[in-house]
Amino acid sequence: MGDTTSQKIPIPVGSFAELSGAQELEQIILDQSQKGKSDEEISAHLTELGHRSPQCLKVLPSTVKTIRLRHSLFQVRHQSHPRRIEGYLTVPQIAKLIDKKAHFLYHLINTGCIKVKKDTKTGLYLFPDNPQTLEMFHQLKTGDVDN
């Protein structure tokens, strides 16, 4: 007689912002991401702390990823930076060096003005990283050479 049982029942919410503790959850995601933790590790840790994603009883790795990317925190360097290949320049690197957009150079490659094949290992157009390469691209930019 008089015995009761208590249980917390999470109420489904439609968005991350509607979660109670959303700001704390977001801060933990940012802190853990900056320490190099994976989305899966962070989501498991947050679930253990009692947090959850909207419409779910646990924190999903996709929720962590969404928050992390919203703050431009990338786990893999190539998500935000062009690849660097020792001894070579890529199209985006050359474009930056000659102050042109990369699509300008891709257009010249596609129309045959620049004859180059993709490197089979990287799948990138690679050019030797030397002064002669940059000089040729500067001449191409200014119209001093056709190809």
How would you spell out the order of helices and strands?
HHHEHHEH
Helix content: 40-55%
Backbone CA Rg:
25 Å
Q: Specify the oligomeric state.
A: single chain
Give the domain tally. 2
Poorly predicted parts: none
Number of strands: 2
How far apart the termini lie comes to: 92 Å
The percent range for strand residues is: under 5%
Q: Give me the secondary-structure category.
A: mainly alpha
Biggest β-sheet strands, sense, barrel: 2 strands, antiparallel
Brief write-up:
The chain has 147 residues and is mainly alpha-helical. Helices cover 41% and strands 4% of the residues.
Question: In words, what does this structure look like?
Answer:
Helix content is 41%, strand content 4%. It has 147 residues and is mainly α. It has 2 domains: 63 residues; 55 residues, Orthogonal Bundle (Multidrug-efflux Transporter Regulator, Chain: A, Domain 2), CATH 1.10.1660. A two-stranded antiparallel ribbon has the order 1-2. α1 packs across α2, α2 packs across α3 and α4 packs across α5. It is rod-shaped. The mean pLDDT is 84.
Fold topology:
Elements: H1 22-34, H2 39-48, H3 61-70, E1 88-90, H4 91-97, H5 102-110, E2 126-128, H6 131-142
Antiparallel strand pairs: 1-2
Helix pairs in contact: 1-2, 2-3, 4-5
Features:
147 residues; mainly alpha; Multidrug-efflux Transporter Regulator, Chain: A, Domain 2; 6 helices
